[in-house]
Amino acid sequence: MSALVHRDIRRLTRREGARTRDRIRDALATAGADGLTTDAVAEAVGVHPNSAREHLAQLHADGITVQSDDRSGAVGRPRRRHVLIDPAAATLDSDTATVEMLGALVNHAELSTEVATVAGVELGRRRALTHTADTATLAGLVADQRRLGFAPQIDADGDTTCISFAACPLRAVTTTDSVCALHRGLLDGWLSQSDHQVTMLVADGDGAACHALVTAH
To answer: Where in the sequence is the domain holding 63, given as residue range(s)?
Structure first.
């Protein structure tokens, strides 16, 4: 089988996996705060429990769900229950304030985009080292950007992943090019020890969101 066919198969597999996770998110959204067990998720979306378990693990790694052990009911091993995190109600970690203050400093000091990028890279590297479980992984980057309040959503296509940021803690400070450079540096710094790199970070014309393209190399 040719390399091209293998690539197409991998691409189709990724797309099908993304669609399955979208259905899981819809099921969890319907369930609300009570969430669903792994078996209930599998039944709701029509997949094998083992497949549901893998997709749920990915959603948890991406910071989209929280997991807990349900010890009520049957005797034996507790059932794993999954609850969808509400992005609007999620509590952001204390480093959100760090990003906001750094953005204010960049804006107030009128730093160049080059200096702002360097500052972002240093912060991104430190955060990657702090969150050791997810260091130098794309999933870890997405989870960390969610913790910082950027509300990322991913769309993978082969070796390229588009990350859409629906929110920005820096936008409340300013929308200058230097602040966007700071965000770009954050992404570059996290991925500096990985096999991925950011090839583009662009903002929508209406300022509603921005998008980063990340490629494997």
So the answer is: 3-84
Same domain? For 55 and 161 the reply is no
In a domain, 174, yes or no: yes
Domain total in the chain:
2
Kindly report each contact of residues 70-76 with a partner whose C-beta sits within 8 Å and lies 24 or more positions away, as own/partner: 70/37
Report how far residue 109's alpha carbon sits from residue 30's, in angstroms, rounded to the nearest whole number. 47
Question: Kind and range of the H or E element at 214?
Answer: strand 210-216
Q: How far is CA 91 from CA 67, 118, 133, 149, 216, in A?
A: 16, 28, 20, 9, 31
**Regions of the chain short of the pLDDT cut 70:** 1-13, 70-76, 86-98, 100, 131-136, 172-175, 204-209
Nearest to 212 by CA among 203, 204, 200: 200
Q: Is residue 89 part of a domain?
A: no
